[in-house]
TrEMBL record:
PANTHER family: ALDEHYDE REDUCTASE (PTHR42683). GO terms for molecular function: metal ion binding; oxidoreductase activity, acting on the CH-OH group of donors, NAD or NADP as acceptor. Coiled coil: none annotated. Keywords: Metal-binding, Oxidoreductase, Zinc. Its cofactor is Zn(2+). This is NAD(P)-binding protein.
């Protein structure tokens, strides 16, 4: 019997399971396993599928998903990584995650100059009418056709993607930013989560569980 990873839309956790397709044994820290199997695969999948290696990758939004985007883009061999956020509040975090450039979309002219047409692959981790993708200028269909531009969506990854991701995590020593919170403080953690306070993943710990 080993401990398997269970994932829902808001939580991921480890529990005992007799059968399971993925064993997270190669992840060195238990408190990293669940976030990697949730947010990690969500960002690894499109970066791998659309070839981050050797490209200038833009990650829109730096949060519980976006920080994985920077980590995996770097690990997959991106030539340059740019973080696009609304303000500069997370610029220092982007630098610590080893992003090469930061764009604040609330600043006038952010899409001009050296930033214009600079990204080869853009992965947006936000769904908001206030954040960058809705601020992009309109463009004619011919602009997509002439440059063979693709606009698509991505959810999570296949079991094969997950195995490849876990191997990369092991080889590169990828460590998500997590904050451990006692299970008895779950209600406060949910409120903090809704207010955007995690940097960048809360991990709930049950002090009474020794399995």
């Amino acid at each position: 019997m080993h401990r398997d990873i269970q994932v829902t839309s808001r939580f991921a956790w480890k529990q005992a399971a007799k059968y399971g397709s993925i064993k997270p044994d190669i992840i060195r820290a238990d408190w990293h396993a669940a976030p990697i199997m949730c947010g990690g695969i969500t960002l690894y999948s499109p970066l791998k599928k659309y070839g981050a290696e050797g490209k200038h990758v833009g990650i829109v939004g730096l949060g519980r998903l976006g920080h994985f985007g920077v980590l995996f883009a770097k690990a997959l061999g991106a030539l340059k990584i740019t973080v696009v956020s609304r303000w500069r509040a997370k610029e220092d975090d982007a630098k610590k995650l080893r992003a090469d450039h930061f764009i604040a979309a609330d600043e006038e002219g952010w899409e001009q100059g050296d930033n214009a047409s600079s990204l080869d692959l853009i992965v947006s981790t936000v769904l908001s009418d206030k954040l960058p993708l809705d601020l992009f200028p309109a463009f004619p269909a011919v602009a997509l056709i002439m440059k063979a531009v693709h606009i698509t969506g991505s959810a999570i990854g296949s079991p094969k993607d997950i195995k490849e991701m876990l191997q990369l995590v092991s080889e590169k020593g990828i460590k998500p930013w997590t904050q451990e919170v006692s299970l008895k403080h779950t209600n406060k953690a949910i409120l903090d989560f809704e207010n955007g306070k995690p940097r960048y993943r809360f991990v709930l710990k049950n002090e009474n569980y020794s399995g």
